[in-house]
Design brief:
By secondary structure, the protein is of the alpha/beta class. It has two domains: about 140 residues, Aspartate Aminotransferase, domain 1 (Alpha-Beta Complex); about 230 residues, 3-Layer(aba) Sandwich (Aspartate Aminotransferase, domain 2), CATH 3.40.640. About 40% of the residues lie in helices and about 15% in strands. It contains 15 helices and 15 strands. The strands form four sheets. The protein has a seven-stranded mixed sheet with strand order 2-10-9-8-7-3-4, with helices on both faces. Strands 11-12-15-14 form a four-stranded antiparallel sheet. A hairpin with a 7-residue loop joins strand 11 and strand 12. Helix 13 runs parallel beside helix 15. The radius of gyration is 21 Å and the shape is globular. The chain starts with a helix and ends with a helix. The structure holds pyridoxal-5'-phosphate. Pyridoxal-5'-phosphate (PLP) binds next to helix 6.
């Protein structure tokens, strides 16, 4: 059969779901000689030896068989201990299931909480990998655009709550946010919690960048739903080993659910992947147990690089941004830019620098570009220099 005959035989969502705009630009620029790529959400460092050595040992011991669908007990215990250490109260391993990356944690949350015809509210600009999987199963992502005014992004809570209707099953809150670096205050999170409680809807919390926090309060992590919610309420948190511990390629993450839901999440894991490899889970446990200093070092690099980018972009005419309070992205507007995907592809061609197009993050992101700045300093400086020269000599449209 020809391709043109095969495609119409697929499900409607598989036929029409577009690729993520981030991937679109990345595939366009991937492999170009000398390209400096800021499009992907990952740091510059490979996984430290202390985290990957247990993987080899596990393989050598023959830990190559099927295992617990929820994750090995040692890793789930390590997750509980990690949370106990960082959130100042006791956590139980029974609330954690190990998933194939943060992405699969999101998949499981969505499969558990929303169905065909339901609605899930997402403040945008937002990472596109919520809306895509929601649409794939017929759930409607309801965007609530955040406002960019006076160089600050703000989430209008009245507008957020007004988006909830009889079909609403959940609100997604990603704080610190990819792409804008917005961090909900404790008061924001309490208001969202109270609203969700009153309506009986779920909160899907994504706090994968929680340690990358630069708030003026000097805290070592962003405000979290775990500070203000009971673990047994309608809260599901998606998380990952990818960012903190430089493990994006490992595809390992976790989902934190009320105890009653752990068997349900486990069943969904069974039908999605049938569990994570034991040997990788050994490495994840090592990262949790021995990785605090490494995370601190990553956060210090992010903070320094954030300042470098801000100092470079601030004096430029036509560039507007909010200094991010968390995560490791700059989301900056180029005055007058109409089509961020086309411009991002042109910057690849004309400056050999790769940014993600703002439109990939929802309608509220059009007019912006996203840059991941957790990179080697020399690459960061060189990429910024190339962009500055491009901006001085080109119209964005
Ligand atoms: C906000 C957010 N959540 C979750 C993830 C998932 O990460 P992964 O699937 O690599 O574990 C990412 C990755 O970019 C992200 O930016």
């Amino acid at each position: 059969m020809r391709e043109t005959d095969l495609i119409p035989k697929l499900t409607k969502p598989a036929q029409i779901e577009p690729d993520s705009g981030i991937v679109n630009v990345a595939m366009y620029g991937f492999g170009r000689p000398g390209i400096i790529a800021f499009w992907a959400g990952e740091g510059n460092l490979p996984t430290p030896g202390a985290f990957y050595r247990p993987v080899g040992e596990s393989l050598a011991k023959g830990e190559t068989f099927y295992t617990w669908q929820r994750g090995i007990p040692e890793l789930r215990e390590a997750l509980a201990a990690y949370h106990t250490r960082h959130f100042g109260r006791n956590f139980s391993s029974e609330n954690f299931c190990v998933t194939g990356g943060g992405m699969q944690a999101i998949q499981i949350a969505i499969q558990m909480l929303a169905a065909d015809g339901d609605e899930v509210i997402i403040p945008t600009p937002a990472w596109p990998n919520y809306a895509g999987p929601l649409r794939m199963q017929g759930t409607v992502p309801v965007e609530v655009p955040m406002l960019f005014r006076d160089h600050r992004w703000s989430l209008d809570l009245d507008r957020l709550f007004a988006a909830a209707g009889p079909k609403t099953k959940a609100i997604v809150i990603n704080s610190p946010s990819n792409p804008i670096g917005w961090c909900g205050t404790r008061e924001d999170l309490i208001a969202i919690r109270d609203f969700a409680r009153a309506k009986g809807i779920w909160i899907i919390g994504d706090e994968v960048y929680s340690r990358f926090y630069f708030g003026k309060d000097g805290a070592k992590r962003a405000p979290s739903f775990l500070d203000i919610c009971d673990t047994e309420e309608q809260l599901v948190l998606c998380n990952t080993f990818s960012k903190n511990w430089a493990m994006t390629g490992w595809r390992q993450g976790w989902i934190q659910v009320p105890k009653a839901l752990a068997p349900v999440a486990e069943r969904l894991i069974q039908y999605n992947t049938s569990g994570s490899p034991v040997f990788l889970q050994r490495g994840c446990a090592a990262a949790l147990e021995h990785g605090d200093a490494f995370v601190d070092q990553q956060v210090a690099t992010a903070r320094k690089n954030r300042d470098i980018v801000a100092e470079t972009l601030r004096p430029l005419n036509r560039i507007h941004f909010q200094m991010p309070d968390g995560a490791f992205y700059f989301f900056f507007a180029i005055e007058g830019m109409k089509d961020s995907l086309t411009t991002a592809r042109r910057i690849v061609d004309e400056a050999n620098v790769g940014f993600a197009p703002g439109a990939a993050f929802g309608a509220a992101g059009e007019g912006f570009l996203r840059m991941c700045y957790l990179k080697d300093e020399d690459k960061l400086l060189e990429g910024l220099e190339r962009f500055k020269n491009w901006l001085a000599n080109h119209d964005p449209n």
